[in-house]
Automatic annotation (TrEMBL):
It comes from the Eukaryota. One of its GO terms (molecular function) is metal ion binding. InterPro entries: GBBH-like_N, GBBH-like_N_sf. It comes from Raphidocelis subcapitata. Residues 2-83 form the Gamma-butyrobetaine hydroxylase-like N-terminal domain. It holds the Pfam family GBBH-like_N. Keywords: Iron, Metal-binding. This is Gamma-butyrobetaine hydroxylase-like N-terminal domain-containing protein.
Length: 118
């Protein structure tokens, strides 16, 4: 399992992504924080509690994308053009994600369940 993905592009450009950022900015249609999704609809939920998510696997999708499999059982296809754009604007999107979490009273940390006595 990995918590970081590094992507090298032609021309020597490299971008490093945390698994958390890739997971919460997944380009899937059901993800409110996705840059591809535009402004999230009122009441849309972001993927909270993903601070420690990991990448379990990766598969090429033709010559244009990779499919990432996360340990929270989410998977999505990440086109290389999406990753290049995300790499250039990573800081801005990370700030937007944190802002959405705060607006919805959510956290990057996973929910903790109290220990039960047996």
């Amino acid at each position: 399992m990995s918590r970081v993905l590094e992507v090298a592009f032609e021309g020597g450009v490299r971008h490093r992504f945390s698994a958390e950022l890739l997971r919460v900015l997944s380009p899937s249609a059901d993800n409110a924080a996705s840059p591809r999704g535009g402004t999230p609809p009122h009441g849309a939920k972001v993927a909270a509690g993903r601070r420690f998510v990991g990448i379990l696997g990766m598969q090429p999708v033709g010559h244009y994308a990779v499919r990432l499999h996360f340990d929270d059982l989410h998977e999505s296809i990440y086109p290389f053009d999406y990753l290049a754009d995300l790499g250039q604007r990573r800081l801005g999107w990370a700030k937007s994600y944190i802002r959405l979490l705060r607006q919805q009273g959510l956290s990057r940390d996973p929910k903790r369940t109290p220990a039960r006595k047996i």
